[in-house]
From TrEMBL, chains A, B, C, D:
It comes from Rhizodiscina lignyota. This is Chorismate synthase. One of its GO terms (molecular function) is FMN binding. It catalyses: 5-O-(1-carboxyvinyl)-3-phosphoshikimate = chorismate + phosphate. The keyword Cytoplasm does not apply. NCBIfam families: aroC (TIGR00033), PRK05382.1 (NF003793). Residues 41-60, 293-316 are annotated as: Disordered.
Amino acid sequence: MSTFGNYFRVTTYGESHCRSVGCIVDGCPPGMQLTEEDVQTQLTRRRPGQSAITTPRNEQDTVEIQSGTEFGVTLGTPIGMRVMNKDQRPKDYGSSTMDLYPRPSHADWTYLEKYGVKASSGGGRSSARETIGRVAAGAIAEKYLRLAHGVEIVAFVSSVGNQFLFPPTPEHPTASTNPEFLKLISDITREQVDAPEFFPVRCPSKEATGRMKKLVEDFRDRKDSIGGTVTCVIRNVPSGLGEPCFDKLEAILAHAMLSIPATKAFEIGSGFGGCQVPGSIHNDPFIKAGAAPNGSEKTSGFPKPRLTTKTNNSGGIQGGISNGAPIYFNIGFKPPATIGQAQTTSTYDEEEGILEAKGRHDPCVVPRAVPIVECMAALVIMDAVMAQHARQSARSLLPPLKATRPAGETIPLLAE
Amino acid sequence: MSTFGNYFRVTTYGESHCRSVGCIVDGCPPGMQLTEEDVQTQLTRRRPGQSAITTPRNEQDTVEIQSGTEFGVTLGTPIGMRVMNKDQRPKDYGSSTMDLYPRPSHADWTYLEKYGVKASSGGGRSSARETIGRVAAGAIAEKYLRLAHGVEIVAFVSSVGNQFLFPPTPEHPTASTNPEFLKLISDITREQVDAPEFFPVRCPSKEATGRMKKLVEDFRDRKDSIGGTVTCVIRNVPSGLGEPCFDKLEAILAHAMLSIPATKAFEIGSGFGGCQVPGSIHNDPFIKAGAAPNGSEKTSGFPKPRLTTKTNNSGGIQGGISNGAPIYFNIGFKPPATIGQAQTTSTYDEEEGILEAKGRHDPCVVPRAVPIVECMAALVIMDAVMAQHARQSARSLLPPLKATRPAGETIPLLAE
Amino acid sequence: MSTFGNYFRVTTYGESHCRSVGCIVDGCPPGMQLTEEDVQTQLTRRRPGQSAITTPRNEQDTVEIQSGTEFGVTLGTPIGMRVMNKDQRPKDYGSSTMDLYPRPSHADWTYLEKYGVKASSGGGRSSARETIGRVAAGAIAEKYLRLAHGVEIVAFVSSVGNQFLFPPTPEHPTASTNPEFLKLISDITREQVDAPEFFPVRCPSKEATGRMKKLVEDFRDRKDSIGGTVTCVIRNVPSGLGEPCFDKLEAILAHAMLSIPATKAFEIGSGFGGCQVPGSIHNDPFIKAGAAPNGSEKTSGFPKPRLTTKTNNSGGIQGGISNGAPIYFNIGFKPPATIGQAQTTSTYDEEEGILEAKGRHDPCVVPRAVPIVECMAALVIMDAVMAQHARQSARSLLPPLKATRPAGETIPLLAE
Amino acid sequence: MSTFGNYFRVTTYGESHCRSVGCIVDGCPPGMQLTEEDVQTQLTRRRPGQSAITTPRNEQDTVEIQSGTEFGVTLGTPIGMRVMNKDQRPKDYGSSTMDLYPRPSHADWTYLEKYGVKASSGGGRSSARETIGRVAAGAIAEKYLRLAHGVEIVAFVSSVGNQFLFPPTPEHPTASTNPEFLKLISDITREQVDAPEFFPVRCPSKEATGRMKKLVEDFRDRKDSIGGTVTCVIRNVPSGLGEPCFDKLEAILAHAMLSIPATKAFEIGSGFGGCQVPGSIHNDPFIKAGAAPNGSEKTSGFPKPRLTTKTNNSGGIQGGISNGAPIYFNIGFKPPATIGQAQTTSTYDEEEGILEAKGRHDPCVVPRAVPIVECMAALVIMDAVMAQHARQSARSLLPPLKATRPAGETIPLLAE
């Protein structure tokens, strides 16, 4: 369905050619300063037309808050948000070649199979435009997490095609054992990712950006497309988040990330490469937290866990629950389905023919996917924070028992 | 939480040392023949102690149905199921070395951080024993899917450490472009996977089984552990399943798979390797369904989609919705955290020390993970089938419109 | 939260002084004709300022569909809807006497206790204006139910203060045993309720309307207010709806109705009065359906239940499941909290004082509540229909068993 | 479905003739002392066979905790509970007269319509036996609420047939304006309700108990049955509970209560009678909390609201949110459907005939309903407490703003 989250819950609407796209955010904590500026920043980073290697359509994507705030402060009631569509006229169906063919590997065919309605925009709700609602919602979640817990969420492009920031090697089948990678994710900021030297790829290495940019341009010039991966790190996450057994934190992250259009793969921490690492190396030994080398500096007032891990192959999650170390994961994006090259395929009416997509299309989506990944990560963490708040507050009111740890030692319970 | 699914909904309970483990299945269609035999088969395949390379504890794991059936037929009411624990006595906490240390990369520490209670079994609910409830529920879902739609779900081991069934190559960075792989997943049966020649690895290649078995034995002998991957294929899935935008079919599969203990990664169709394949090759052209080379033979009476795809890099899902082609995916399992080797780590009380785990532990979990993966896959497909049934039945009662496809052409709506 | 329903799911947003109010409807069946006209009718019936006995503010309340339809047909994707607020400027807080006082029996105080934010509109989300979103969503549900199942939903005012349409008597402590009442609910139409002779009370008896109108005018003139009851009947409901044990159909109806502002009470069928009727009279004997005296004429093609009941003290629901007979229920609305009379109460700052509400307020809400009740009823039935569709479609694909009834004999499974 | 609650979530299973009935409680706060004794008390109060006016079958109903506790302390993981059925053999269907007839006003017919399966116990899941799971779960919730917030929940019988504890009068059309009633609900304890002098009716007035007992005996002797009402009060509820707009606290209470078998009506506070009371009298003026005449003594350490109300026609809830005053409500129970008298009705096969139910049946269910009502009330309040905990904890970590109230002034946020 179009709802994500239980306690901080976003519901989105809208497809390419309707009046507007938007969302309702339910469950936002009251008393937080919030204006449209807070949301616009990520919408602007998501926007198409930012460079020659992304789609050149120039959509404005200006958000209007409809409800849920007053004098710039959240009321605790649902926050409605809306972004107008520029091209609201559904096109006259059947007028062009593209209307005869379901685009290969696109959602045109499956939307028709599912809903039985042949809409002008094919699988219109599968459009990247749908992601506006979730980005807007995620921007609110992220603001809360930053204010309340100092959480930092940074995503970047880690590969395009066969060009990697950290290519797998026999020594490091997974970047999680590579100190350089760990250093990067402990430091990287969003400002760095957006720095001109990494433009427009958003890969935080000038050298790799060069290789990747070149590759995308090659594919663009051939009217072809190519995939890539985005890596995301979340720092300063409170320990104790995640709701086993079915709602383990990595399970919800995977759910969130694979709901982003064009995604095919997700890995947390050591990921697939970690399957090749012996347990004796893969295990993250515990150490006293003070000496934490990948030390997440907490900016809010709640107690840090007393232990941390020396290595972080777990990616900050163990047994489905955050341990306070940086959470990081990779998402694989397939090559965009809409390409200018001629493709032999079938019409809706089972006739073989040749489809050549008109217009300009993203030859590679990963740069624009960066803010979408960050916003989905924020939604996941926000919901998990609220679930754990409910548990911990409830627990803190019980008479203390010998067999348990004081509630105050785990998650924050600060009365002002 | 401990609930999975909306229409076909399973809720599980139980940890290692309590009285029993089990589940409640709510929403099972009424009127289906169901006895404990139907459930026991997969529980027995999941059981530890099946071979020298899996953990030698011999648990019986006999299921008892508590409710929801009468004279061997489902009533449509909740089905309670229970499996007794053999060792129900929580051990005397603090009596052994292992109790002083949270096991590295295990859930002991994070469970304490989350719940604040130091249980005798550490992160007891993170135990593989928790999976009994979901396997039992999945076995019911699978029976329904087989009876009603001819759905076939088969999982197998596709790698152990660096030993692969289909190693990535420059030509085939993903197995999805490899005809041999596509042939295998279109044919493979559960009986083949369990054949003596592939015992105990469950990798459907005698040669690869040999390599993998050797590798696991090496790790076992070194008191170390190693990870691996499981590949799963689901054949004869009706088209139109999956609930965009947040509940795309691959997103729910990812959620389900990453809720299985010890998983770190998930990829659908071409997966991470597909990021390296040009769009012009990666796209799956449509062809008339009759000629489908990866032809899924439907055994139930509902209409096959009129189109299918020539290739299947999509893994049977496009735009988050099934297209009728085989759905396949890989799951990465990390090396088991509990190893016999000495590890330098910290006690709960922040003292550095050396932990040597006692007892015998699985050096590699992937063979036993096979039925768990299958059962989670069944739960996902079952829930998606019921959601689409609700939509299609509702739609079929509306007056027909020109712009839409007849409801009867898509999903089954067969009155008897 | 602000979401209602599982399969046909509405999420609302908006309070009195924000930019707009509205909703997202997720799960609407695709392929249904739908335009803004379909929704506007009920919004207009709900609007204030319709008569001298309701509040004279004249709000336009024009709905704009944002998404989910194309060329007037539903796509199956979320339907966004929006109604602008006329007065979008939050008032300058603290400028008037009313701002010093939480209004007695209003939501001002509890909203502050809950959210901690003192909004300009006090408990702004508790305003009747919030109901716009649910009425818009309910209008869509109702259209579907009428088209697909011939469902008819009609609500009317059954009492104002101590003036009753069917006053309880020793013979009929509940109207459910009164043949006149049963006749009325088997026939009454929305057009009749809105007829000029019953204006503006919406009580389908000229005589009772006169008594009620007089009473409301008395209370209005005294700057006081008075409560009343609304009775609602739903005809042609398929049998088999309702999801025991917790989601019995009457439980969901009660939930829906008591979520309407100012409601205090709900009764289904014989209700509280039925507690005084002996079981031997209260029981509804079964008879062959053809002879059904309270005969619901089905207009769609699905099989009527073979049995119906001779009487209908059950109100069409038995064991939490609809039996095909008319469903009817009463809802009690308290006197509006905002009155012009001086009230001795306390300020937010615990000072005793006298509050006199300015402006004109509804002296009685029941006439305007009629469309709100109808729309909530539609949301409940729609969701229950889809849940039962999912079950029945799933069941219809199983091999038939002797112990069960053919699926086709119960709920509709019509392929076109 | 069979699940109730979001944060504190109970899922039940079981019908009359299966192996056992039970439930899984998910989300219970960790670190609470809990043994089977805590649960057994309410199960025993619910048990049939307690007196000559309730059904004489003597079921033991001994609960076994399966999981979720260790050494008598909750782990925070799901708590499985089970009560064996004494008569587990489904009877040989069709052997008796009763099997030919769906019992009038019972669930036999609608269960068949819904599920299509003719079970030996008819609408077996609609049996009072189903309530065991919810009573067990509610007992846990209640223990938490008592320990953490000093919440007291007491239900009692307030009418049987036309015999009332507080009959409606012209002066007091609702008991909510009657000082005697308000005094009773501010004081009444569960021990008093169970006192020998009120046995077996559970109406806290010797005189009324006499009248009611006599009435039930009359109906029993005539092989007839009669309904009644239960009143429930919840004291010491924190202010701020309830989740508008759809999940107002009274809406969830109504949902919970109307999910109890045999219920037909619900009213909160002044209820239906309040519709007849002028707003000027019905409104509850605010007063400084110290002087609260219906003073709820809080036993836990969180701040009392600064204001309370002089009267309590609202029943402790305003705008869907608790205000700290006692919450009270009535539930109407219909006369039991199974009676010994001969009834002319129809067989399943549409033949008219005469049904005479065998065996002994409850002539009136209200005395046994008392603990069921209390337990459902506990489930509602528990879930609302956790939702508000999540919000308040989240809010307490935000930088303070002028426009808002300090988080610490509202709901408890006590670190130990």
